């Protein structure tokens, strides 16, 4: 029962263009959403987050959009750079327990120089 | 600044053997977690701890045990290794006080049970 879904296993984008990674969730109790980036043989590293009371959060080249009614969030990377090539995980927390995170299956982004 | 450190990085176990995956953090975080990641899947929570002496089960706890005797350390124990436990294991920590915060992850332990 996957509560957080990333339906695109992979995405290829030209350098300098926009990358859009999508994530859907089913649990309406989720109140905090995060994006993690993962390189091979490394642990996930935090990228950006958004609270459910907001619909947009921006940090440099990275912007996360949240559409609560559609239970959908997306990560925009503009402009995309070759160093952005990695697996991106969407995660969500319902604020209960110990801030436990529910992860999507990840999207592998390849930025082509 | 070490962050979250896991040992070993790789391990091959035979069915029925036991082992302990070590995890330590130097950020004085109160919360610690163990996740596993199977191929093509997201990370799933095994166990978590909200402070020294307090642990609780996550989504997939069967076959594992944990302890939290200090703030820094959160070892994960496999008592009778099974092929289904072949996975990459990630330890994480976070400082949680009120609002949500992000978790910091170790580099992972790749375990193969044969």
Task: Tell me about this structure.
The complex is a heterodimer of chains A (113) and B (114). Helix content of chain A is 0%, strand content 54%. Chain A is mostly beta strands. Chain A has a single domain (4-112), classed as Sandwich (Immunoglobulin-like), CATH 2.60.40. Chain A starts with a strand and ends with a strand. The model of chain A has no long low-confidence stretch (mean pLDDT 93). Helix content of chain B is 0%, strand content 49%. Chain B contains no helices and eleven strands. In chain B, a hairpin with a 2-residue loop joins strand 5 (43-51) and strand 6 (54-57). At the A-B interface, strand 4, strand 5, strand 9 and strand 10 of A face strand 4, strand 5, strand 9 and strand 10 of B.
Q: What's the domain count of chain A?
A: 1
Strand content of chain B: over 45%
How many helices of chain A? The count is 0
Work out the helicity level of chain A: under 10%
User: What proportion of the residues of chain A form beta strands (DSSP E)?
Assistant: over 45%
| SS-based class of chain B | mainly beta
* Number of domain units of chain B: 1
CATH superfamily of chain B: Immunoglobulins
Structural class of chain A: mainly beta
Q: Spell the H/E element sequence of chain A.
A: EEEEEEEEEEE
**CATH level 3 topology of chain A:** Immunoglobulin-like
The helix-strand sequence of chain B is EEEEEEEEEEE
How far the N terminus sits from the C terminus of chain A, by CA atoms, comes to 37 Å
CATH class of chain B: Mainly Beta
Gap between N and C termini of chain B, in Å? 36 Å
In quaternary terms, these chains amount to heterodimer
What topology emerges from the helices and strands here?
The complex is a heterodimer of chains A (113) and B (114).
Chain A: E1 4-5, E2 10-14, E3 19-25, E4 32-38, E5 45-51, E6 56-59, E7 62-67, E8 72-77, E9 86-93, E10 101-103, E11 107-112
Parallel strand pairs in A: 2-11
Antiparallel strand pairs in A: 1-3, 3-8, 4-5, 4-9, 6-7, 7-8, 9-10, 9-11
Chain B: E1 4-7, E2 10-13, E3 19-25, E4 31-37, E5 43-51, E6 54-57, E7 64-66, E8 76-78, E9 87-94, E10 104-105, E11 109-113
């Amino acid at each position: 029962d996957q509560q957080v879904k990333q339906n695109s296993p992979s995405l290829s984008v030209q350098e300098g263009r926009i990358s859009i990674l999508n994530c859907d969730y089913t649990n309406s109790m989720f109140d905090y959403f995060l994006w993690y980036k993962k390189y091979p043989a490394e642990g996930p590293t935090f990228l950006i987050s958004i609270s459910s009371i907001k619909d947009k959060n921006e940090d440099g080249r990275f912007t996360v959009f949240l559409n609560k009614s559609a239970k959908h969030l997306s990560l925009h990377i503009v402009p995309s750079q070759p160093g952005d090539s990695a697996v991106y995980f969407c995660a969500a927390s319902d604020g209960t327990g110990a801030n436990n995170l529910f992860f999507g299956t990840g999207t592998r982004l390849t930025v082509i120089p | 600044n070490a962050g979250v450190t896991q040992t070993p990085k790789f391990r091959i176990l035979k069915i029925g053997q036991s082992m302990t995956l070590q995890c330590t953090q130097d950020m004085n975080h109160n919360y610690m977690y163990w996740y596993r990641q199977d191929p093509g899947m997201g990370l799933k929570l095994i166990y978590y701890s909200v402070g020294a002496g307090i642990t609780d089960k996550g989504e997939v706890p069967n076959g594992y045990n944990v302890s939290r005797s200090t703030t820094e350390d959160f070892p994960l124990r496999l008592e009778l290794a099974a092929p289904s436990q072949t996975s990459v294991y990630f330890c994480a920590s976070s400082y949680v006080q009120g609002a949500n915060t992000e978790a910091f992850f170790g580099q992972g332990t790749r375990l193969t049970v044969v």
